[in-house]
Amino acid sequence: MRTLPALCVLCALWCAALTACTGTSAIKGTPVNDAPEVQRQRLAMHQRGEEEREELAAMSDVSANDVFKTVDGAPEYRVGPKDVLEIASRSGSAVTTTTVQINNRGRISYSFVDDLEVDGLTASEIDDLLTQRLRDFLKRPRIDVRVAEFRSKYVSLMGEIASLRTTGEGARLPSGRQTLTGRTTLLEIISQASGYTEDADLRRVRLIRGGKAYEINMFDIVEGGKGWLNVVLNHGDVVDIPELPNVARRVYVMGQVARQGIYDLDSADNLLAALSAAGMFTAVAKEENTLIIRPDGHEGKALILMADVERMLERGDLTQNVPLKEGDLVYVPRQIIGDITEWITTHDTFLDWIFYPRRVQDNYFYGEYLKFDSKSAAD
After folding, report:
1. What is the DSSP string of 303-361?
2. Is the model's pTM score more than 0.90?
3. In what side-by-side order are the strands of the sheet with 329-332?
4. pLDDT one-digit tens code per residue, 175-184
5. Other CB atoms closer than 10 Å to residue 325's CB: what's the count?
6. Cα–Cα distance measured from residue 215 to residue 277, given in angstroms and rounded to the nearest whole number
7. At what angle do helices 348-355 and 357-364 cross, to 10 degrees?
8. Do 165 and 248 meet the contact criterion of CB atoms below 8 Å apart?
């Protein structure tokens, strides 16, 4: 009888071992939120993201850099070596125009004034400075100064830039330079270079400045309202638009998702898969009012479907998980859409930007807005 307690202990240990072996008891590990290393990684990623956001925001909200400065509320170009100035001198009704190139030391000589330092000044500042210096020789000097040729400031463009991909007989150039003539944003420089090609991956446009690279999602600027990503460029910046990773059949995911952009239909062939590829919803998304816009609907009109993704996720209603077709646009709004006709009207330019880039190019080309590659339209 004395051996009974010991026997009970042995049986209990044996049962515990058997339970562990059969897997009926879950292995207890450290919850991920309690792991110091995971917390450090999350904190480091958050800090890097915040720092990069602050840096990009500062780059987009500048009143002066190496290319321009604000004078009397208006941005003016800063001249530099090799720029060419046109100086008009007035005497009564007669006007004499002289062309002067800034030398490599950033100086010019004009009339009675030699070696005037002008590097970094604007045309209006040079006008004021030159007028002041000429007063030592002329009673009432009357001159006007403007920049005739911009040569000293530029950015380098690489990748899927339309102007680099359509030169000569289909030649493909590896890079190119675009001259800066004043305050110029990222969107504007892409426009000036004839836009991007149909193979451009606009989710991962890289801006390289001072040896540091920033990744910018252009969809977030155009549709997401993140104007702080539309950086004001500086002399020597590099803009690189990479090629899409072999996306042959495409679907678009826009609106209130984590990563707006173009996705491969093979891995995003239904609504839930497409949303998952785009990182699911933001905090302000109205997932119950998700739209699927199909450009090749009946009689040439876009077919617009509405899916309640909230119902699909919370109640398992898979009837809302719409199969997608090539060219479909999944759009997650930030407010409930009550009138679809009104929504289409207010988003007309945005829809053209996605489905009909040629139409947008025709509408905005001469307005110095966005420009697009017309190769697909010309074929």
Report:
1. EEEEE-HHHHHHH--GGG-PBP-TT-EEEE-SS----HHHHHHHTHHHHHHHH-HHHHH
2. no
3. 261-264, 250-255, 329-332, 290-294, 303-307
4. 588 999 999 9
5. 15
6. 18
7. 120
8. no
